[in-house]
Design a protein that fits this description.
Layout lengths: L8 H14 L8 E4 L7 H6 L3 E6 L6 H10 L3 E6 L8 E4 L12 E6 L26 H11 L6 E5 L2 H10 L4 E5 L3 H13 L5 E4 L4 H4 L7 E5 L4 H11 L4 E6 L2 H13 L3 E7 L3 E3 L5 E3 L4 E6 L1
């Protein structure tokens, strides 16, 4: 007879009620995440919620160690083994259980009262792995993220936009972000960032060839850092989703001047062009301007 290793809805609700009573809080204030046999963005979830309940099993044997490794070692944690609520609950800091291996279904409750329960778009560049990538300014990235309108279940293709991938993946926690990284060094930096932020919903592909596109889900929207291959990129993405939406980023006036014709050739409507200019004072109180990109949107 096989032993069940995943929680059903009734058991998850029972454990939620149990910990709500123990913690003297409302169940609606607890963020639930079920990772039994699944890969989900556990670390970003913990960092943006005060109370997180994780349903885990042996497929995440080293979960406590991984959380400690990602800087969550000092968070308060309660955990218990079993499918049905019981009083064998252990309590401590995450670091106290770093060597604990999960071998049976386990419920983990993590408390971080000091966190803000919101996600702030436009993370500072210092949080990203340095690598070979030259990141866009965080204020400009915040505007880009607003234009993308990412939701929790979104699927988006992002061509050479490393920091946009990370922010999008954190928001689209139940979706998939496709990172197109033709440059091998940039690909390694992308992989470092994915690991650093504890993300499990990023698929990295080397190009937009038919072979690569066959391996990915259908994206709703594509964000492209424009190169001389822009039109070819658009053509290939349209083969994956004939109703694709586009956001194009460029600093080059000559590239900008070609986009209207490219959109017309591919029946991309509702073109809008926005130029973003950001100036900030330096340590000498002198205004310094960042590069001013154009952002071009359109949809089929």
């Amino acid at each position: 007879m096989s032993v069940r290793t995943a929680y059903n809805n009734k058991e998850m609700l029972a454990w939620t009620a149990y910990f709500a009573d123990v913690m003297e809080t409302s169940p609606e204030k607890i963020k639930l995440i079920n990772i039994c046999g699944k890969e989900k963005n556990v670390v970003p979830t913990i960092e943006t919620h005060k109370r997180v309940m994780i349903f885990a099993d042996s497929t995440h044997e080293n979960l406590f160690y991984e959380l400690w490794e990602k800087g969550i070692g000092e968070y308060d944690v309660w955990f218990a083994e079993g499918l049905i609520p019981n009083d064998n609950v252990k309590h401590g800091k995450v670091i106290d259980f770093a060597n604990k291996k999960l071998t049976v279904p386990t419920v983990i409750f993590i408390l971080n009262e000091n966190t803000r329960e919101s996600y702030r778009i436009g993370m500072k560049n210092e949080f990203f792995s340095k690598g070979t990538v030259k990141y866009v300014g965080n204020e400009i990235r915040a505007i880009i993220m607003s234009m993308l309108g990412v939701d929790s279940h979104d699927t988006i293709a992002i061509v050479s936009g490393e920091s946009i991938v990370i922010e999008s993946a954190i928001i689209a926690s139940e979706g998939t972000i496709i990172a197109v990284e033709p440059d091998e060094q940039d690909k390694r930096t992308m992989e470092e960032n994915v690991s650093k932020f504890g993300l499990h919903n990023v698929e990295i592909i080397p190009d937009l060839s038919e072979e690569s596109l066959a391996k990915i889900p259908v994206p709703r929207l594509s964000f492209i850092v424009a190169t001389k291959y822009l039109e070819k990129d658009i053509e290939r993405l349209i083969t994956k989703n004939p109703k694709m939406q586009f956001v194009i980023y460029t600093l080059e006036l000559d590239v900008l001047s070609t986009i209207k014709d490219i959109f017309e050739r591919h029946n991309i409507k509702n073109m809008e062009v926005t130029q973003v200019t950001i100036s900030k004072t330096d340590k000498n109180s002198v205004f310094v301007s960042q590069p001013s990109p154009w952002l071009i949107t359109g949809e089929i």
